[in-house]
Every structure is written in structure tokens, then in C-alpha cells.
Amino acid sequence: MSDKKPLFVFKDVHVEVEGKEVVKGVSLTINKGEIHAVMGPNGSGKSSLSNALMGHPDYTITKGEVSLNGKNVKEMSADERSRAGMFLAFQYPTAIPGVSVANFLRTALKAHRGKDADMSDFRKLLKAEMKNLSIDPSFATRYLNDGFSGGEKKRVEILQMSILNPKIALLDETDSGLDIDALKTVSEGINRFHNEENGILLVTHYQRLLNYVKPDFVHVLMDGRFVKSGGPELALKLEESGYDWVENEIRQKAKV
Amino acid sequence: MNKNNDIKIPDIIPELERGPLWLKEKRYASREAYNRTPLPSRSLHLWRYTDPNKFTIDREKAVDMAFNEGYDAVEKMELNHLKEGNLAALATDLGGKTINFYGIEKLTAQGIVISTLSEAVEKHHDLVERYLYRLVNSHTGKFEALNGALWNDGIFMYIPKNVTIENPIHLLRESGLANSVQFPRLLIVVGENAELTVIDEYGGGSQNENKEPSYTNGAVELFGLENSRTRYIMLQRQQPSATFYLNHRALVEKNADMLTITLAFGGALSKHNFGVILNAPGANSNMYGLLFGSDRQHFDNHTLHRHLSGQTTSNINFKVALSDKAVSAYTGLIRIDHKAKNCEAYQENRNLLLNKGTKAETIPELEILNEDVMCSHGATVGPVDLSQVFYLCSRGISHTEAVKMIVNGFVNNTIQKVPKDLQERIQTYVTERLEHI
To answer: Are B229 and B255 spatial neighbours (Cβ–Cβ below 8 Å)?
Structure first.
């Protein structure tokens, strides 16, 4: 495929948290229209990688390059990265008491567009997207993530992604804490968002989300390094044999 | 001027001679108490954070009643609110010297009394004598005695049994400019099964921080009789050079409900003491505080929930936001007496420090004298939560804007509880302060 256009590229990225290196040199190229999954056991550095890529001040990229559409984003603050077209769906979205979902989204949209969204257009957009994700209309006036259940929080993350329409979406354990119906709704939201121009990086522990959102590539992250990459069949193999299987394979290789 | 001099109230001054004999006796007793009582020791917990010397009087000070220009705008706005039907009545109190009432005719027709305290002393003698000085008096403290001796004039309200006033009555109390001294006083009796919302707003003082401060020493006494519903909203928005002292006490009777909202934005130095006493079963008190300090403002707040009777409930949520070099001390006492069984009492104090250089103290105090109670308290002091900031930033919102949104969110629940016609103004005060962070 010669028409592949690199969208989001990171090279040899190292991440430190509180002085400890948790990601030890990872590289990946996501072309336009591609979905990549990063899988790994707990503590492998998945969340650290996604937080660092989004510019969380506690996660320092000590080495490596990150670019979006050929533009270096490593020196950008989180809000600049967002406006450049990056999005992170959080594993544990933070509650912001006193700030309503609608008010928050309108402010975020304004930051992206540089001007206020027309009130009635915005209401229509919000209403339609909420309906798509089976979010009750009353959530528009509720305080952001305040008292939301795990499933509600994840739906609202996808709602934000749909409305902000980023170029690259990093989805950090978006499937965790979802029952089967919510998982379907959220997956449908992700699939609706996905098109030939954008890219998705799914970070997940389990394979089950990948039944609904089909990745083009799967990468296994262990101890801060990508140890294996492959197609969707790799996820199935992991589900079947567990992460021990990859570990054993690495050990075998080391012996040889 | 010697600030350490504890100046006495002289024997013979006209202020002490105002009113009938019983009132003069109270005034003289208050004078005695003020003169006799030494300044509170700084080692007492209520005075650990604030210098009591600031609240004494200096008789050299002129009681000159020139008023701040900003006053007219607020008066106009509130007169409009009255005209539009958002207020039940408006009272303007210029340092106790000139007190005007607007829109009270309809209220008077329902048997409601709203007048100056001095007029009430004459016309509603029995009522006033029964209630005045019952909650804030010469025994309460030195500075309460000062008000008790010298109050110029005040406001009196009586809501008869079964009368409901739906819209707020707004009291606009204006202090004079630099060097002025005033002693506003408020007495409210809400009768059985009656309902009242009152906004008690304190403005004035000099805008010039280099001048001698104006000094306001206020006293508020509220009585919520059986089954009554009272909402008392205090707004303090005095000018940057003002010194402010207020003691508020409310007595809540059987099955009566008391809501207290305290909103503090103004003054250089303010010491507020809000107390609600739950006197009979079924009495309930909710108290919400919102304080936003900036520059070098110093705030000292004390709240008291005293459960004298069993089966009473209380809740306090006191929020503080500070920027620049502002300082706040909050002490909150819940006292549940021996025989007051089956009470519930909750207290929460959250302090948001918006930059280094601000300082907040929070001291919860629980005196629970029996075991059949449900009681909890929580307090936090700290900067804006960075995970909240990152969350908003990750959606494209700038750091400054994110902090503003979080602080607005922090104060929002309290603002929502304020009567509608005041909400916009409170939001403006918050927005103004957030512009500088």
C-alpha cells in the first residue's frame, strides 16, 4: 500500500514518572485510517505511555520524538496538543464538581475553534451525540463525571471525542468497567468516529473491546517495551494463552 | 495613634442616653462590660489569628458620614429589583444615621413590622424588649458589648404567625468613608409557621487603602419560632480599607428551619461569627459559606452550631478561595449538649489556595456531650487539583481558563443557593477576582 500517510508517529519514546523510567524506548507509526491496539499486563506502562503522549506534567518524556501530521508535539502543552488534534479518553476520568457537561463541552469547543459555537447548533450537536451514545439528556446539566458510574464516565469520554473530533484518539482502557451493553454502545461510538482521515490507539488489557473495534495492528507492551507486534490474530492468541505465553516466547528467544 | 490602647467608653455620651429606661440600662451595662473586659488574649483560639486591637474604638475618630460613590449604583440596582417585583422590600441604612424603607406598604398591611429599631422600641415595645439583647449582649464578648452600648440605630422586623413572604427583603447597610465608625444592629422575629428570606448586605468604607479604615461593628439577632422557615443571606462587600466585625446569632425553635448563607468578598480585615442555636426538637439549620479573598485581605470566620435539644439537625459547608496574599482562618464549633440525644451534625470546610503566599487555617471543633449522635466533619486546604487541570487542558482548554473553570465550579453550588436576584452580582465578584489569577 503505497498511499499510506503517516499521521501520528512516535520514535524511541522514554517516559519517567517520579524519577523512575516506566516506558523504555517505544516506537510506532499510525497511518491515516488505521486502528492500533496496545495490549499489555498491568504495570507494563500502557497508561504512562498514553498520559505522556497527551502531555501530562507528571509523565516526562525524557527521550524520543512525537509528531502529529509531521509536526513535533513534544514541546506542546496538553491544551496545545488537544487543539492540534490529539485526544485522550481517560481510564479514570476526573470529576469536576460545579462544571456542567454542556458548559464544559462548549468551552472546549470554543478553545478548538477559536470562537463560540452557535448556541442552537451546539445544542443540536450535543443532543444528537448524546442520543447516539444512549446518554440521558439530563446529563448535559449534570456536573462533569461527578457521581457518574464507571460506564457513564466512559460514555461521556466518547461523547467528548465525538464532539471534538480529533485526528488521533488515544483510548486508555475505555472498555474497563463496562457491562456488555455499554461496551457495545461505546464501541459503536468509536466506530462511528473512525474514518479514513483519523487514527486510533486503543490501549487495553483485554481482548474483548477488539471484538467490536477491529484493530489493524496489535502491539504487546511489557515492562515498558513493545515485545511483539502483529495483526488482530495476536489479540486472540493473547486472550487464549495469556501474557505468560509472550513472556515464555521471549525467554525462549533469549536462550537461543 | 496608639493601637495598643484599650480606650474606654466615657461616662456621659449621648449615644448611651437613647431609648427608654430599660434600653438605657442595657446600654450602660454594655458600656460597663466593654470597659471592664480586657482585650481577648491572643492565646484564645478564637483570637489566635486576628489582632483584637483592631476592633477597639478611638473616640477621636469622626463619625463623618460621607458615603462611597459605588453605593448609588447598588441602591439603584436593588430599587430596580424591587420595581420588577423580585424583592418584597428594600431598606437602606447609611451608617445607622439615615434608614429608608421602600415597598413596605403591602407588608405592613399583612401585619408585618419593618422599621428602624428605635421606632420599634417605641411602637412595639414589648416585642423588642423581649427579644433585643437576648442572643448578642454584654456577656457575649467585648466587641458585642461595644455594639450593645453604642448602636446608632438598627433595623427591626417581625413576621406574624402564618405569614409567608416569598421574595427576599433586601437590607443595604452602608458604612462611611475612612475613619468612620458604625454599629449596625438587626433584630428579626419570624413568627410561628411564618416564612422570610432576608438579604443583609454590608458595603461602604474607603477605597483608599492608605487611609485609616472605616470600622463597622454589627450585631444580628434572629428568632425562628415554631414551624417557621427563615433564610438569612449575609453579603459583605466592603471597600479595601474597611474593618468589619459581625456577631450573628439565630435561635431556632421546634420544627423550624434556618438557612444561613454567608458571602464574604470585601474589607481589609473582617471577623465574622455566625451561630445557630437549635432549641427544640425538629429544629434544622443549614449554613453555607463562601469567601473569596484577594490582595492582602484578612478573614477570620467562626461558625457555631449549638444543639440544645435532641432531634435537631445541622449542616455546614464553608468554602474559601484565596489569591494574592489573602489569609483566612476558619474555626467551626459543633456543640451537642448532654441531654440533646439523636442529633445529626455535619461540617465541611474546603479551602482553595490559588497561589503561593495565600494562607488558610481550618480548625474544626466538636464538643459532643452524649453518644447518641451522628456527627462528621471534613476539612481540606490546598491548591487546585492538578488532575482536574490536566483533564480540562487535555480538551484544549488553556491552563488559566481551566483553573477559572474549576474555581467557578467550586463556588457554583453555593451561588445556586443564593436568591436569584443576587446570584448575578455574586458571580461578578467571583469573576472579577478570577481575572487576576
So the answer is: no
ipTM above 0.90, yes or no: yes
- Residue A134, Ramachandran bin (φ over 0: left; ψ between -120 and 50: alpha; else beta): left
Is there a domain that residue A69 lies in? yes
Contact B116, B95 (CB under 8 A): no
B396 to chain A: which residues are within 8 Å by CB? Answer: 79, 82-83, 108, 111-112, 164
Asked whether residue A200 is assigned to any structural domain, the reply reads yes
> Do residues B202 and B244 make contact, with C-beta atoms less than 8 angstroms apart?
yes
Q: How far apart are CA B222 and CA B132, in angstroms?
A: 10
Q: In what order do the strands lie in the sheet with B169-175?
A: B98-102, B89-94, B169-175, B195-204, B229-236, B257-264, B284-293, B313-322, B343-353, B373-382
Residue A124 placed within a domain: no
The helix (H) or strand (E) run that includes residue B148 is helix B142-150
The verdict on residue A40 lying in a domain is yes
Please say if the pLDDT value at position B142 is more than 50. Answer: yes
> Any chain A CB within 8 A of the CB of B401?
yes
Q: Say if the Cβ atoms of B405 and A104 lie within 8 Å.
A: yes
Q: Does A85 touch chain B (CB under 8 A)?
A: no
Question: What ranges do the domains of chain B cover?
Answer: 14-384
Sign of the C-alpha dihedral, residues B116, B213, B264, B86?
positive
**Rounded (5°) CA angle B303-B307-B308:** 130
- Burial per residue of A131-146, b for 16 or more beta-carbon CB atoms within 10 angstroms, e otherwise: ebbebeeebbebbbbe
**Residue among A90, A97, A108 whose CB faces B397 most closely:** A108
Model pLDDT for residues B366-395, shown as the tens digit of each residue? 999 999 999 999 999 999 999 999 999 999
pLDDT in tens, A218-232: 999 999 999 999 999
- What are the backbone angles phi and psi of residue B55, rounded to the nearest 5°? -110, 10
A107 touches chain B (CB under 8 A): yes
Q: Do B409 and A90 touch (CB under 8 A)?
A: no
- Which of these, A142, A140, A180, lies nearest to A163 by C-alpha position? A140
- Domain around A23: 6-94+166-255
Q: What span, in angstroms and rounded, lies between the C-alpha atoms of A101 and A106? A: 9
